[in-house]
Amino acid sequence: MTRALYAAGWGYAAMCGLLLVLSPTGPRSREAHAPAAPFRGPASAWFTSMKPFCNAVEVEVQQQYRPAPEGAQGSGYSAACFALAGKIERARATIDRLPAGDRGEAAGIVFAVGHPVADAGDDESAGPIMRLVVEYQPENYMALYHAGISEDILGHADLARTHLERFLAIYQPEDGWRANAKAVLARLDGR
């Protein structure tokens, strides 16, 4: 019986390897499974090493001893780390230290880092991050959507309405995002 199980295990491993080699796209790299990041380079590498410390307890000390690289990308990743830790004011201050023309780029990084949190269904946690992004990227329709859903969850009807109406004005495809925004607005309006 043991030999049969051993042979079955090796047979299964061989079959998986064969399927991987014969797949149309070939073997995928580890990078294909990594979270999407808007940039590559030193700032992205810094964030990768810093991300485990992007929590309320460690973020301040770690960023003091291991500051992000200079520029919009470094500031964006630094702000994203503060935002993940729930330190939205520190994230805002980090972005505000940049020249006005670079703030949108930094906010885009914050969005890219925070968006998977919202897509995972935690709009309550992602809401403050998305509201921060909207300050610098007022046309970012996905940030508007997630900020609006978060405001609704938190019971802030007026802010939810503002964000979701703006989302609907920008985002036109009739899909689940738009249908959900319309349903929340209808409920808020008592329809």
Instruction: Kindly provide the radius of gyration, computed on alpha-carbon positions and rounded to a whole number of angstroms.
Output: 21 Å
Distance between the termini: 66 Å
Which percent band covers the strand fraction? under 5%
Report the CATH topology name of the largest domain: Serine Threonine Protein Phosphatase 5, Tetratricopeptide repeat
Strand runs, count: 0
Looking at the overall shape, the CATH architecture of the largest domain is: Alpha Horseshoe
Q: Which homologous superfamily in CATH is the superfamily of the largest domain?
A: Tetratricopeptide repeat domain
Can you give the mean pLDDT? 83
**Poorly predicted segments:** 5-37
Percentage of residues in helical conformation: over 70%
Q: CATH first level of the largest domain: which class?
A: Mainly Alpha
Continuous helix count: 10
Class by helix and strand content?
A: mainly alpha
Tally of structural domains: 2
Rough shape?
globular
Overall description:
The chain has 191 residues and is mainly α. It has two domains: 1-34; 39-188, Tetratricopeptide repeat domain (Serine Threonine Protein Phosphatase 5, Tetratricopeptide repeat, Alpha Horseshoe). Helices cover 70% and strands 0% of the residues. The longest helix has 21 residues, at 2-22. The radius of gyration is 21 Å and the shape is globular. The protein starts with a helix and ends with a helix. Residues 5-37 have low confidence and may be disordered.
Question: What tags apply to this protein structure?
Answer:
191 residues, mainly alpha, Serine Threonine Protein Phosphatase 5, Tetratricopeptide repeat, 10 helices, 0% strand
